[in-house]
Amino acid sequence: MRVHVTIPSLTTIGLLLAGATTAQATDGHLLHGVGAINSAMGGIGVAMPSSLLGAFYVNPAGLLAFDGTATELGFEMMKAERGIATTVGSFAGTTESRSDFTPIPALGWSQELMQDRLAIGVAGLGIGGFGVDYPADPNNPILAPRPNGFGNVFSSFSLMRIIPAAAYQVTPQLRLGAALNLNWASLAVDPMPVAAPAVDPGPDGVPNTADDRAFYSSATADGAFGIGAQLGLQYAVTPAVAVGLAYTTPQAFQDFEYNAVYENPNLPNYNTPRVFTFAMDVPAVYAGGVSWQPGSAWTAGVDAKYIDYENTAGFEETGFNPDGSLRGFGWKSIWSVAAGAQFRPTAGIALRAGYNYSDNPIADQYTMFNLPAPAVVQHHATFGLGYLFDNGFGVDVGYYRAFENTIAGPIQGMGGAAPGTEVKTWMSEHSILVGFTFSPAGAGRGVAP
User: Fold this and answer.
1) Residues 377, 26 contacting (CB under 8 angstroms)
2) Which of 109, 329, 347, 440 is the residue whose CA sits 20 to 30 A from 284?
3) DSSP state of 438
């Protein structure tokens, strides 16, 4: 056992995560990978970790792949392009969201103990989110100033996780890992449709007619804590081939609670206080993978994940309640598949590439309900390279492109879909990642000794 680096404090991890803003995630609302190495290889790591950060994110059994003391620091700059096109009869318009680069930090540390049979570690990761910033647009029906449209539509969701984890070498071929997931999330949506709107009967004074005016309240950012766990195993079938399984439990969160006001200027309760809540958890993830390492130069793998949105609070239902509030996002459970490879032409140089495909969780008919969360990208191409110095210090860079995908459905009201209407939304992403690794004992090893 070799000890060279002291554990970074949780305060340091907290400061790193405090700098993260909204991540526009790629597999549903979760990142396909974390860090320059793991992301550049498509996010693989269930059977054998591509990086220390990948082990914390995908399968904690992989902590034993890193000799002695290991540290990895990652920083990602992601940019998403999003847009809405709406048609109501002959009235049609298109609007693009404001798009800025989003910083996403990550930090992990691990240490081997007990003659290298036990590894412990801790990580702080930004792992997901969504967000839009559409201006009010009189030329776009759904973004027309209220009450004719929603006006400005803004959302910001960030998901961050601190992960204490451990892995144990049961036999020379079998590793087991476990992690505690300590989550924090922030959510803001304006207008927020999960609270009943303030409705007045309109100029004709008759309720439930076409000229009724409805105003949803704004939900400024509120934070919530969540907790869950992750279990994983890795098994060496041969010295070159390994398989892995991992299960991340549903992450149970506190309800988001918002101090808001009634925003209908035509009612006597205008601008008076109201409080409402929204329950939104993070889904369970089931993962399996196979890796192949025929020698020191090549590493390759394929992973599959099932993300269970259909049984997760906040995502499992949609449609309107009788009071006009929205039940939830209504996402489908999805599969994602990742493939990645690394080639080392020399001991110091690493070339990486990967591909990640994710189902789209949003059905076309629910497009309007998901304007604040257009998580519709599916195909991701990933690339990266790294250089490892003789002292165990490494520098890595990565890039991925999530190609544009579009969904479209009708404008929905209390009475159902409005004839002759269409809401279309699209999204694409690209991201640049930089990482730094330090492992004085070496670059790590596979499942078999």
Assistant:
1) yes
2) 109
3) E
Tell me the DSSP string of 348-402.
Answer: SEEEEEEEEEE---S-GGGTGGGTT------EEEEEEEEEE-TTSEEEEEEEEEE
Element (H, E) at 131: strand 118-134
Exposure string (b/e) for 175-198, b if CB count within 10 Å is 16 or more? Answer: bbbebebbbbbbbbbbbbbbbbbb
| CB distance 45 to 60 below 8 Å | no
Q: Assign residue 319 a region: left if phi > 0, alpha if psi is -120 to 50, beta otherwise?
A: left
- Name the residue type at position 75: F
Task: State both tokens at 125.
Answer: 């990761």
Distance CA 284, CA 226 (A): 13
Is 402:379 a contact under the CB 8 Å cutoff?
yes
Strand partners, 406: 426
Neighbours of 290 (CB within 10 A): 18
Beta bridge pairs of residue 275: 259
Per-residue pLDDT of 134-177, as tens digits, reads 999 999 999 999 888 899 999 999 999 999 999 999 999 999 99
Tens digit of each residue's pLDDT (9 = 90 or more) over 327-337: 999 999 999 99
